[in-house]
Amino acid sequence: MNETFEKALGTMIYLANEVASQVAYNQSPEVWTKPAFRHIKETRNADFWNEVFKLDDELRFLLGFKKWSSTDTEMLIPIWIIECLPDDFDITVTSISGARCSIKKIDKDTRFGCVAYMV
Questions:
Q1: What is the DSSP string of 31-100?
Q2: Phi then psi dihedrals of residue 100, to 5 deg
Q3: Has residue 1 got a pLDDT over 70?
Q4: pLDDT in tens, 81-113
Q5: Model pTM?
Q6: What is residue 110's predicted lDDT score, i.e. its pLDDT?
Q7: Could you tell me the sign of the dihedral formed by the alpha carbons of 29, 31, 34, 37, in that order?
Q8: Domain segments of the chain as ranges
Q9: What 8-state DSSP symbol labels residue 103?
C-alpha cells in the first residue's frame, strides 16, 4: 500500500477518534478537537500534503475527496484536510464555478463534507 495514503488514513482515523472522544465526554473542542488539529499541523508538513493531493483518485476518494460532477478531472477537498494544512502550504485550487485561486483564499463552504474547491 502507498505510504502517503497510510499516513493520511491514520491521520483521518486519529482525528475521528479525537472528535468522538469530545462528544463521548461532552467536552469543549478546546479539550480534544482543537489540540488534535494543532498536533497534525505541527507533524504533517507541506510536502506531505502535496503528496496527498497527488494520490490517485481511488485513494483520495477513501480519504473523503469527492467529484463535483462525473465530468470533472479534479476532486473536491475534504474539510478535515483543510483544517490540517500548515500555514506554509499553498497550491492553486479550482472552485465549483471554475475560478482558480490560492487555497489560502478559499472560504469553507462545503458540499458533502468537502470544500467547494477542487484539486
A1: TTHHHHHHHHHHHS-HHHHHHHHTS-HHHHHHTT-B-SSTT-SS-EEEHHHHHH--TT---EEEETTS-E
A2: -110, 140
A3: no
A4: 999 999 999 999 999 999 999 999 999 999 999
A5: 0.93
A6: 94
A7: negative
A8: 3-118
A9: G
CA distances from 103 to 10, 12, 75, 86 (A): 23, 20, 14, 11
Partners of residue 93 on adjacent β-strands: 101
Q: How far apart are CA 116 and CA 65, in angstroms?
A: 11
**List of long-range contacts for 66-69, beta carbons under 8 Å, 24+ apart:** 66/111, 66/112, 66/113, 66/114, 68/96, 68/111, 68/116, 68/118
39: cell is 498536533
First-to-last C-alpha distance (Å) of the chain: 22
Query: Tens of pLDDT along 27-58?
Result: 999 998 999 999 999 999 999 999 999 999 99
- Find cell 469553507 and name the residue: 108
